[in-house]
Predict the 3D structure of the following.
Amino acid sequence: MIQNYFKTAWRNLVRNKVNTTINVLGLTLGITVCLIIFLLVRFELSYDRFHPDKERIYRIVANSSGSDGENQFGFVTTALPDAARAEISGFESVAAFDNLYSAVSVPREGKENQVFDAVKAGEGVSPIIIAQPPFFDIFHYRWLAGHAATALNDPFKVVLSEKEATKYFGPQNPDQWLGRQVIYRDSLTVTVSGIVADWDQHSDYAFRDFISFPTIAHSFLKNDFESSWGMWDYDAQSIVKLAPGVTKAQVERQLPAFMARHKVGPKEFKMTLALQPLADIHFNEKYADDFARKANLPTLYGLAAIAAFILLIAAINFINLATAQSVQRAREIGVRKVLGGRRPAIILQFLSEALLIVLFATMLALLIADPLLAAVGSLLPQGVKLEVFQWPTLLFLAVTVLVTCLLAGLYPARVLSSYQPALSLKGQGIQQLNRKSYLRKALIVFQFTVSLIFIIGTLIVGRQIHYVLNTDLGFDHDAIVIIRAQVDRPNHKRAVLAQKIREIPGVQLVARHMEAPTAQGHPGTFIEDKGNADNGKRVMASFDMCDTDYVRLYGMHIMAGRNLFPSDTINEFLINETCAQQLGYRHPADALGHLVDIGMNGGNGPIVGIIRDFHSKSMHEPITPFFMSTYERAERDISVKLSTSGQSVGHLKEVLAQLEKAWKEVYPTRKFEYSFFDDTIARLYEKEEKTARIMNIAMGVAIFISCMGLFGLAAFVAQQRTKEIGIRKVLGATVTDIVSMLSRDFVRLVVIAIVIASPVAWYFMHRWLQDFAYRVTISWWIYGIAGMGAILIALLTVSAQAIRAAMVNPVESLRSAE
């Protein structure tokens, strides 16, 4: 019986090649999109789910409120973890760690040290941390050599992951790696005290070099990692594990009193602490850090919805084409019923056809999934791959096949199996049903509504990205190359490199600094007005340490006062307009000459200049207080402004080659890496650009599937109205009249879709734009362009069949029509 169902189903599918092709192509695209998005969602949701006691692991985060508004910090002051361990009850373990950016060199007996380059310029993620011993109490590793209880207790010790040790020393027994030396920042020599196995599951905490925390106090690192309640270090993190039975709420009730004891900030400034669950770190973008690649949960849900809609559009094609074929299938159904066929058996017959198409589409989807994953690899995180024979993938495919089969096949099967055999054999009642099928029209409206939402969304996302990349940021960003020289020892190497670069023809200016004007995360601290006894205020501000060429190179405008004078200490300040205003000055220039203190490294001195506001963060955030000062020890990067007047691409390559030559003279064993500042800015909006590309793909797929269905329906309508078309032509109707007649109904449905899609698209895009402090307005013409585009697409699709039908000789039409 079942074999007969599938044999009959196969014959029907082969007989209707056009409809079968449309259904297979649509469902293949829909299932492929669903499969790829399933792989992405599963990958993202797998992060840090494998840790024992993961539900008891939290990160301490901070929220501040003051004159500069609300701010969230995923980083903490380095003074906090030890104080929390001593003063707050309910913790089983508390561990601090700091990211360390450094090249690594490994001594070779009788040879030069082998050098391993630091993080690539602009990549922003370092596998090296300086960690307190309890780090290994919170995160469990399998120890291959050494002991978790003692490996990080002493200064100048390091624990390596197995892969990292193999990279440094070559394949050996883990015990043989103990006692080997590794050098960080050119002169920090540490000894390997432990080897751990690498995690084989996804984690944001997949560090590979763990330097002992006591090393800071016994080395030059103490100058870079200052333990102060006024200094909130972007690289400092605090991870805690709650004791069994202790709840998050019980610990958080102790935090306000804890902060009050340490008097962080002035009275008008409120800093509060909270515990962030481990599972939230991968998804919560409010709390920034340099090691976790953030995945946006609403975006994942949105992608899942997009996949579902695309698959639904493909299923709608199946429903529409199947019900449209009811005239051809009516007599078949009538004969089956007369011969004793019962309705459940007929339903199973039609479901068999749907199942064959869905299975074939699924096989095609599996064949094209890997090539498509490679094609869209830049939109996906590294590690997303198709593993067909894993049970989650098999379960997903089985559920997808079942749901799609029922979704696409059940309604047509129920409708077609409901026809009365007497009427079916006479061909009565069905023409009218097909001609005035409100459900079919509603489904077409739904298809184009979804397509129009994608079109409108694509236009708005594209406008916003163009706006943020082309608006005036308050500084120059063209023809600037950033070289990350790292905070290595000795310090003078960076100064030597900068001087060599200045001597290269084609180089206009060179500046040394911590960060570029717009960066993923500037450090922050308090700046307090000490020179105004009546109105002394203290605000949280981002900052940069730079030399005197920084302002000139980036074309920043000094509104009042002067630039910084050369100095190797923090002794004078440039502040932006917002900082001056939040310090209490109605006119920014009034702040000139006033003494300020930043509470770090003896950092106090006068305000010597006011800089016009610029965007030190992405346009997701409003402009906040910012200051600059000189501190040679903290200057990490070198910016190079290239001369562009009359220069060719070949000249640019020559200058870059000269930059590399200068680098090799100063750092002969290290790889030369650079980035263009324009690319650094673009990386701030990488998520939005990926969103735009995903919207483009979704729009293209949705429109393609919708048009395939429209094409099939237009062909069917033209076929059904063959006699009418012939009579109209005999009575004098032109080709234009016939095309207009056949297209009118479809265009009317698209217009209805425009009316429905416009407010829906406005709602979702308005919410998306709220994520930007600076954003475009949603103009009326966007809906006009989207609507006209959809109508044009529908007309082109339908007209192809309409023109073909209109061009047929009426004699042939009337002779062939019954």
